[in-house]
Give the backbone structure.
Amino acid sequence: MIVRFSRMRWLIIGMCFLANAINYIDRANLAIAAPHIRMELGMDAATMGVVLSAFFWTYALCQMPAGWFIDKVGVRISLAAAVGWWSVFTAITGLVHSIGAMLGARALLGIGESAAVPSFCKTAYNWFPHKERGIACAIFDSGNRVGSALSMPIIAFIIAMIGWRGSFMITGAIGILWAILWWFIYRDPEKFRDIAPKQVDALLADRGTSIEETGTESKISWLDLFHYRTIWGLMIGLFCLNFAIYFFITWFPSYLMETRGFSLKALGTLGMLPPLCGILGSWSGGFTSDFLLRHGHSMTFSRKFCLVLGMLVSSCIALCAVVENVWVCLALFSLSYASLSFAGANTFAIVGEIAPTPKHVASITGIMNFAGNLAGIFITTFTGVMLSLTQGSFLIPLAVAGGLCILGALSYLGLVGRVEPLPERN
C-alpha cells in the first residue's frame, strides 16, 4: 500500500497532464478549423478574431471565482466538473450553424475550462514537496504543448476525413471519458493517512501544515491578496507570457497557411515543431528550477532565474515576421515557444511557494490566470483587426508580442518579491 501511495502522485499528475492536453486540443480545434469555418459561415478575419476571443472572455472572467471554488470544494469535484462541462460544449460547437451560436458555444466552453489550471496547480501542491514541485508543474503544464502539437496532425486528419464538425464531436467525447476516470481515481493525500501515515506526514510537513492544521483559517482574505506587489507582478508577467503563447494556439495555423503558404498536410507536420520544442522547454524549466533548489540556491533565485531567462529569450518571436526563410522562421517560433514554456512551468510552481496557506493556492492561481488570459482576448481580437487593416500582415502583432515578453521579464524580476509565503499585513 505504501508503494501504491508513492506511485499515486505520478498517476495523478499524469492525469492532469492528459487533461491539459485534451484542453488544448479542444482549444486548437477552432484555430485549425478556422479557414474551413470562415468559408462555411461567411466570416471575415475580424469576425473570426471575435469568435476566437469569445472563449477567452468567459475563461478569463471565471478564473477568480473558479479558484475560490476549488479551494472550497477540492480538486476531485472541481476538475471532474470542469472537464465534463467543457467537453460537452466542445461537442456542441460541431453542431452550430450560425456565428451567434458559435460565439455562445465558445463562451460556455470557456466557463468550464476556467477551473482547469487552478485545479492542476492545487493538485501539484497537494501531492508534491517543494523540491519536486517544479517538475510536477512542468509535467501538467507541458500537457498544453503536447495538446498543441498533437492537435495539428490529429485535427487536420479528422477534418480531411469527416470535416471540421466531426473533429469537435470526437474530442468532446474523449474529455467526457477523462472526467469519469478522474472522479473514480483521485483522492487527496490525507485520505491515505491510514495506509501510509509516514508519507502523508512528511508531505504535510513540507507544506508547513499538519492533519490538525489543515482546517484552520487564515487572516488573509481573498480580497487581501490584491494588496501584495508579488501578486501584481505575477499577473503582469503571465499576461505578457500568454500574449505570445496564445498566438500559437489561435492564429499560428492561419499564419502558416495564409502567410507562409502551408498546406493542411504541411501544417500537420511542420506545424508541430514549435509545440514539440515547447514540451522540452517546459520540462527543462521545471527540472532546472528544482535542480537549483536542491543544490543550495534560494527559492527566490531558483524560480525567478527561470522566469526571467525564459521571457527574455522568448522575445525572438518578434523576428518571425521579418525573416524570409521559412526554416529560420520556424526555428525562431520554436525557440520562442520553448522559452515561453521554460518560464511557464515556474509560473505555477511559484504559486505554491507564496501561498500563505493551502486554502490560497487555487485562489492565487485563479487571480494570476485571470490576468494571464486577458491576453487571450487581446491577441485574438487585436490580430484579427490588424490583419484587416494591413491586408493580412502579422508584423505588428508579432512585434507587440516580442515587446511584451521583455516587459514580462522585468515584471518577474522587479515586481515579484521574495518567493516565500505572503506575510499577514498589519
Remarks:
- The domain at 2-186+201-209+220-415 is CATH 1.20.1250.20 (Growth Hormone; Chain: A;).
- The radius of gyration is 21 Å.
- The longest helix spans residues 2-41.
- Residues 210-216 have pLDDT under 50 and may be disordered.
